Amino acid sequence: MARTDAELLIASRDDAHAFRELYDRWADRLLAYFYRRTLDTEVAGDLLAETFALAFERRPTSQARGATG
């Protein structure tokens, strides 16, 4: 059974594979969203990288509010 985003977020504090699963689940959709907003593939890629870098940095203290799976 697949874990929810909230479960993955919490698990990612101790398990890098859980964070990778979150990345794999959301990266394409987020990249498409950023591209639609900017119409620039390079900027969209930078925004995606920054988004996940910040999420990774904050995972020890993050709270899984409203996360879906």
* Biggest sheet descriptor: none
Broad shape: elongated
Radius of gyration: 13 Å
Helix residue percentage:
55-70%
SSE blueprint:
Blueprint: H1 5-11, H2 16-38, H3 41-58
Helix pairs in contact: 1-2, 2-3
Task: Give an overview in words.
- This protein has 3 helices and no strands.
- The protein is mostly helical and 69 residues long.
- The protein has one domain (5-58).
- Helix 1 crosses helix 2 and helix 2 packs antiparallel against helix 3 (41-58).
- The protein is elongated.
- The N and C termini lie close together (11 Å).
- The relative contact order is 0.22.
- The mean pLDDT is 90.
Précis, in short:
The chain is 70% helix and 0% strand. It is an all-alpha fold and 69 residues long.
Quick tags:
69 residues; single chain; elongated; mainly alpha
